[in-house]
């Protein structure tokens, strides 16, 4: 554009305020009507032709912070005010002054801010929020990754906390949201069409009493378009799949010494009943646990699909020629001592990648905890946990966190499609993994622990695409300054701006969580339950207090606890004593009739006002009653032990039947049902499978975990509609 070219030809890095507004106006931003004059005399003359009160500003390419320098004079009411203001501005601006801007004095109780900048990872990013003096103090701003359409802009505005300021406010009309939408879309277009513009700041966007929106000040900063350095080459999705399906594995650095990585890896694979061929490699040769140890992979007589390397980092480069000669295409590099250790380690890692690419070798790691694929009984991790096969893919940039989650999944009955600790991601990144399992039919839910991303724009586009097919649940490490520093030292990569990352996740439909256990809680819910199509939650509980807590949690998680319809109340009146709550939550007043529980559950599910049900206390009564019976036996020596056994067996059978019938009701009404245990013990499981059913029983040990899961599922369902 002429404005940009003129500024560049003059060696300028900023546009004047007048130039900035001229450009913004062309992109639909409602800017203030103003006049440019060159002298004090012209300012006086123009002021007389314009309605008072006025604003006078100094104009110049180097005058970027006018307010701080006293170059903005407000509420000028006559010619004398204008002359006095112009003289002051001329003196304060000195040789930087190129002229004056004359604007009408606009007033409004509400001020907003809008802007554009280029994030290193995600590219052009639009910002909108509360403006004026409160922008930095309150920080009520929303970010979105460009390009944005009108619907995206509308959603962005709806994310702002200060919604009351957008509506009718203290006798003033609601803000013109269409003007705000045009501003956001205009900024997005500038960001994608004029990459030389690196930053735009519109502050304030004043909302007048009649709701009219006007940009009264604007700054546009120009800059060089940075070269896009390609650090990681995208991996073919099929290649990711092959890595998890080796027919033979060579363990390089195998050892008989217990707890060494060279021992941990192959013993886990052997104990896990992996059916492929296993070869041990140690430079000393001999035997390890009665198995022949080859001195080199080149001595192995048969083909090898995967090499698992545990030798010191300094010796890994020398392996590349041997791996190439043996035609080993996939490497799981457990060894640490690379980029996570600093500059020297980064140099070593870069050289390793260069040589591996030339040799046609694909490396997962280094500094990884390993992989697992329960579908072929492959458990190749340092921690010996073996979850069952399922539909959740787990990829983490922390091996320890990943294997802890695997252990939790094993205990809670959560099935795992595959696990990969991505480590330093020298070659295979979290973006590669996401795209690899996008095309995998067995993967229904994607779970990620992320400390950094290598290609933000690719991550964003892939997530938007994958999220339409299967939910992506993610935990971001490095959300705080301390966390970001730890992430950098851990993975050898700096964390991206967390606010922009969150914006990308919001737009891409990624379900962000705050705690590691949330990852598998949500995995259990998403992989086992239908999505709620609305936010109305029916609650049934054995205790009133629980119902109060659950109701509060629902509201705090963006859900609703609607009032029961008269029709539902009438039918429940026939089932419960007269003193029941007559409200949602349905307090079962300690009724222990199990058939009654199922009947009320179905009453809630068939009610139009209910989109999901939480039941609390139906499961786990066995544990409470067992404790009661044990106490009774301890004090009453004549007590019949057979009665205890029969009672506990009855309760066991009931709970299994209750879960089974709950799952069948979910299939009938296509609404999720989540339970909360009354008490829990070592037999307690999050997931219970029911033969022949596509859904599963899901029961958590606390109400907050149940409500949080439903809240996230509802938001994801809304995003899918969106």
Q: Give the CA-based shape.
A: flat
Largest sheet: 7 strands, mixed
Number of E-state strands: 30
pLDDT below 50 for ≥5 consecutive residues: which ranges?
Answer: 488-496
Based on the structure given, which CATH architecture of the largest domain is correct?
3-Layer(aba) Sandwich
Task: Give the secondary structure arrangement, pairings included.
Layout (H helix, E strand, L loop, with lengths): L1 H8 L7 H10 L8 E3 L2 H9 L5 E6 L12 E5 L2 H15 L5 E6 L5 E10 L3 E8 L3 H5 L2 E5 L4 H9 L18 H17 L3 E11 L5 E3 L2 E5 L14 H7 L4 E5 L8 H11 L5 E5 L5 E2 L2 E4 L11 E4 L10 H6 L4 E4 L9 H16 L3 E3 L5 E4 L4 E4 L7 E8 L2 H14 L3 E6 L8 H9 L6 E6 L5 H12 L4 E5 L4 H11 L6 H11 L2 E3 L2 H13 L8 E5 L2 H13 L9 H8 L12 E2 L6 H12 L6 E5 L4 H15 L5 H29 L3 E4 L10 E2 L8 E4 L2 H19 L1
Parallel strand pairs: 11-12, 11-15, 12-14, 15-16, 16-17, 20-21, 20-22, 22-23, 23-24, 25-26, 25-27, 27-28, 28-30
Antiparallel strand pairs: 1-4, 2-3, 2-4, 5-6, 5-8, 6-7, 8-9, 8-10, 13-14, 18-19, 18-21, 29-30
Helix pairs in contact: 3-4, 6-7, 8-13, 12-17, 13-14, 14-16, 17-23, 18-23, 20-22, 21-22
Note the main attributes of this structure.
722 residues; alpha/beta; Dna Ligase, domain 1; D-amino Acid Aminotransferase, Chain A, domain 1; Rossmann fold; 4 domains; 7-stranded mixed β-sheet; 30 strands
